[in-house]
Amino acid sequence: MTEKEQWDAAQAYQMTGGPAFPVMLPEAKIVYTGMTIRDWFAGMALQGMAPHIDDEVKAARWCYEMADIMLKERLK
What we know:
This protein is mainly alpha-helical. The protein contains three helices and two strands; from the N terminus they run αββαα.
């Protein structure tokens, strides 16, 4: 992996929290497939507010804002 690829991977991990459910291969390598922790957090926020949604776009934005806040808190 080049230095730029390492930097890009680190940036993506920082922004998304990495994979929510990484898959371990027999060779003990991690495969980053599926949703990210950011997506998982946003989905959990949406689940809690689902009965109160009147604007889906605003709800989605709010959920990802909450997910971003949760990711920042994890770094403390």
